[in-house]
TrEMBL record:
It holds the Pfam family CPSase_L_D2. This is Acetyl/propionyl/methylcrotonyl-CoA carboxylase subunit alpha. Signal peptide: none annotated. The keyword Nucleotide-binding applies. InterPro entries: ATP-grasp, ATP_grasp_subdomain_1, BC-like_N, Biotin_BS, Biotin_carboxylase_complex, Biotin_carboxylation_dom, Biotin_COase_C, Biotin_lipoyl. Residues 120-317 form the ATP-grasp domain. Its cofactor is biotin. Keywords: ATP-binding, Biotin, Ligase, Nucleotide-binding. Residues 1-447 form the Biotin carboxylation domain.
Amino acid sequence: MFSKILIANRGEIACRIIQTAHRMGIRCVAVYSDADANARHVAMADEAFHIGPAPSSESYLRAEKIIEIAKESGAQAIHPGYGFLSENTGFAEACEANDLVFIGPPSSAIAAMGSKSAAKAIMEKAGVPLVPGYHGDDQSPETLRAEAEKCGFPLLLKAVAGGGGKGMRVVENMGEFDDALAAAKREAKNAFGNPDMLIERYLTQPRHVEIQVFCDQDGKGVYLAERDCSVQRRHQKVLEEAPAPGLSEDTRKAMGEAAVRAAQAIDYVGAGTVEFLYDVDGSFFFMEMNTRLQVEHPVTEMVTGQDLVEWQLKIAWGEPLPLAQSEVKTRGHALEARIYAEDPDHDFLPATGHLRYLSTPDESAHVRVDTGVTEGDDISIHYDPMIAKLIVWDETRDQAINRMVQALENYRIAGVKTNIRFLHALADAQPFREEDLTTGFIDTHRDLLFPKSKLDTHKALVLAAGFVLEERKSSEPASTDPWSPFGRRNSWRMNSEYAQPLQLQVGEEIHDLKILERDDRYQVFVGDSVYNLTARLDDDYLQAVINGHRISVHGNLYKDQLVLFYEGDTFQCSVYRETYGFEDMSGEGSLEAPMNGAIVAVQAKVGDKVIAGQTLVIMEAMKMEHAIKAPADGVVSEIFFGEGDQVSEGAELIAIEVSEEEAE
């Protein structure tokens, strides 16, 4: 077995590989960018080498530099993880040319599957069922329009070299085709260096079911169950599970055998995933093959009891498959939720920020957390905004869902926007429990997945007041007389009863509270209501009784910014001080950047008349394009940034003189 390997990746997957390698007695070499100097994967590795500035193009995508470090460190093999160079043919070839084992498939297999159109031709020859569409070499707009008409609508445009939802557009009719094609080509060229497209019939109620396959160097292959990854946003997976609900044993077997045929058709070696679209009538169609370990591999590990990274290492060393097909067994049900720094309330825009508070559920045989970050880390614009993967297992699907709901309630983050509340609503949604699964699940059940807060506003304000007051008490100097009022910061007055004021700001609204402190309780006045409150704060855990209702929450108070966590929900407010001087920094007709990112295109000039909803700026953040649209009809009066500029969240991009009719 290898004695030392280099991991050409970062974040949770690098940490995940290190864990297994160390268990097997293998030393690990990490690489890191400027942004990752203090990252978790660097601390876990036996040694680490600086590789360049923060942008991935100047660090984690520098194949020659990685090869150089591997040779310098004495590593015998390179594990690429997923993303970055994991499916780069040239990198795999460079490893082979430098006598380094690439822990993945041969470069020829990556090349075969790297082009979605070429892959479909290979699959067709191997007898793997395909979705109707076009995957030819002629990329002229005229040919693509003709093939689109032939395929029928709705259809899906996909980058031939793509993945992760990039360079992908759903087109409902020919009127949308040209604009969608231009946008998809531009995004594909930026992300993959290849603008070529393929066309597929867009199934209206499909499920995304994929098969985990493994092949050894003798050409033998097995499939390790299947995963359902239907719940997606922007064509990117959000929640995965294994096994896929509702599949018959015959379908499961047919799909697994087709996946192995697909792998063997390209002389595959190692871990791979064959992805299928599964239709309501039970038919399934080849979609693509990912020639690497998948983000969602832990759900397969949880139901099979196998360590897939260990399998990768053994097969790369030349050992045979650890199990024959007849020996592969599954037990129970597993789910994985991807916890992202993003804002579900604003179309899942990527978020950046400082993880000032991070508390995760306790890990056990039922709960697993795969992460590459710790409290105090920053989520930057340079890399994918995934914070962690939360994986749960139990005997049945319903029990596993209950585990997931509970675990999400115990996952608490402050300092950056996350999708935890959304994931909690999703996992607990009745349609999900009832296996109503399609790739359009989120759009179909949007009302269920964006529920109102579970906490009544007044009750949340009372809890916030209790947290703030108890936090203040904990920082008071110790007094020799615990009953003395003189050491307390509660606005106590001699010979009078004084209700101390507390202003809490929620969004743009400021709430005036008044609080009377008794020896063992508070009276909190909110508007015309009075609440009797007893509260006890233990670190971040507040136990309270409000008018006889016992309720407990966790919270984090940092520089007057308070976040309360309750049953998967959050309540955020700040202690308002008039000296803050809040001001509206932008006019009614301004366009602001919704996140940190780069300007890809400005589609307007000063003096242009624009209409509400017209795309004026295209931004790129976390390798995804986002269209910034005019908020109202008007005339462009000023443009503040140009193509290629880096901008921060909230920066004014374009000023618009709003027409009088619109202003009225």
